[in-house]
Amino acid sequence: MIQTQHNKDDFFLPDLGSGQSVFMLVLISELFVLVQVLALPGDIDFSWTRLAMLSLFVQWIVLSSSTFLYLARPFLKKLPTWQSVMISLLGVQVITLLLTLLSQALLSPIHFEPDWQQVNRNLLAALIISAMLLRYFYIQYEVHLQQQVIHNARLDSLQANIRPHFLFNSMNIIASLIQINPEKAEQAVEDLSDLFRASLQNRSAVVPIQKEIQISESYLRIEQQRLGDRLEIQWQIGELPERLAIPPFTLQPLVENAVYHGIQPLEAGGCITISINIDHQMVQISVENPMPYTETISKGNQIALNNIRSRLEMLYGSRASLTTDIREHSGAKWFTAQVQYPCRWDNTIDNLLTGTDH
User: Fold this and answer.
1) What is the tens place of the pLDDT at every residue in 265-276?
2) Of these four, 12, 25, 240, 309, which has the most CB atoms within 10 Å of its CB?
3) What pLDDT digit, counting tens, does each position of 59-76 carry?
4) How far apart are CA 17 and CA 67, in angstroms?
């Protein structure tokens, strides 16, 4: 099966200039030649010479046609689909005709007479095969568009499930601070307005990681207003490129879970350690927090974790993961959530949902 990538121009004809596409076309054409030679009548012996000559001829046509479609692609994508198909088919027919006549002339250079019966057979075979391939490319393109629409709808739904969750919790925190400390409540309102702005403005599959860190810091300031000295934060951030991207609301829900299911139930509170680094072109995020001995991964915690897993899988496939671990250390119980995904830059946001590296 020929794997193709669709560029932002959304054209059904793939980029046949890539090494993978050329290799697959050559392989398919060679299989076609082998089947044709093996399907000869039983009274005709198998000939390696016939196989080599036919392979050379077919590869001429395939590579020449691929070159034509690759060079003509910028022009074809500006035309209606039916016109692009007709020009593509016509181009392949012309190439097949010229190469057939050329091969006949090379085999009989002195007394050259075109074998029109062979020419017609080659033209018909080229027409059928090229039409089937173009049809396959178009169907693959249509399926890709449908998958992209479903993908974007699911992504919007998953992100919408996260936003109200932490926003409503933050509003409850502010409500509890109004009577106790109006000044802290005012600061919390300012932080929450930043969170609202980031949430309502974000419609991208990924955002700069520095923006995600700022959102998490705003959320943690709100929580520190409520928990006071019971909540300590330790950031361990390595050297991160400015354009490094992350799916929105990936870090913040992990931090929120650490607060609500780790620090809040502990009478003495504790420290949340957040580390972000890049290792072998993989972004590594770890959020570690103490937790009560009687606490397990609650349903609410699990929903948030599954939400993040789903979004990571939709954007990065099997290369991304979210793992959790509960361990005992220094007389305390610790919960760790670790996220890893391939490095991406925020200027590739538009490309992430169009088939890159999944």
Assistant:
1) 898 889 999 999
2) 12
3) 888 888 888 888 888 888
4) 7
Overall residue count recorded for the chain in this entry? 358
Cβ atoms of 69 and 107 closer than 8 Å: no
CB-based contact 305:161 (threshold 8 Å): no
Q: Which amino acid is at 5?
A: Q
Pairwise CA distance, residues 302 & 298, whole Å: 6
DSSP 257-315: HHIIIIITTSTT-EEEEEEEEEETTEEEEEEEEEE-TT----HHHHHHHHHHHHHHHHH
Copy the structure tokens of residue 305.
Answer: 């974790």
CB 212 within 8 A of CB 346: no
Is residue 22 a contact partner of residue 39, using CB atoms and an 8 Å limit?
Answer: no
Which spans in the chain are helix H?
Answer: 19-38, 48-76, 81-107, 116-180, 182-201, 209-227, 251-258, 299-316, 349-352
Which tokens sit at 334? Answer: 């610790």
User: Could you tell me whether strands 332-342 and 231-237 are parallel, antiparallel, or unpaired per DSSP bridges?
Assistant: unpaired
Taking a C-beta distance cutoff of 8 angstroms, is the pair 315, 322 a contact?
Answer: no
235: which strand partners?
274
**CA distance to 60, 305, 352, per residue, from 89 (Å):** 16, 51, 32
Report pTM: 0.57
Backbone angles phi, psi at 210, to 5 degrees: -65, -35
Alpha-carbon distance of 273 to 235, in angstroms, equals 6
CA distance linking residue 106 with residue 85, whole number of Å:
32
Per DSSP, the three-state class of 350 is helix
Tens digit of pLDDT for each residue in 96-149?
888 888 888 887 777 778 888 888 888 888 888 888 888 888 888 888 777 777
Question: Contact at 8 Å (CB) between 334 and 326?
Answer: yes
Phi, psi for 285 (deg, rounded to 5): -120, 130
Please give the torsion angle defined by the CA atoms of residues 97, 100, 103 and 109, in that order, rounded to the nearest 10 degrees: -70
SS3 322: strand
